[in-house]
Amino acid sequence: MKSILKIPTINNNDDINTVREAIAKHEGVVACQISLSQKEASIIYDSSAVSLEEIKNSIEEVGHNLA
Asked: Where are the alpha helices (DSSP H) in the chain?
């Protein structure tokens, strides 16, 4: 599966690294690309191993809101 999540609270490289680590900790995440200018994350993942809700929750747990 591929999903694009809008994350309006990312403002710098530290935020990108924090979000990337939160996403990457999940088994089943194949790739993750985060755009600071577009404030979004493009995630490719195996939906049989991790749900989009789990990924969203991990982003919110590190202090970032989703649009």
From this structure: 13-24, 52-61
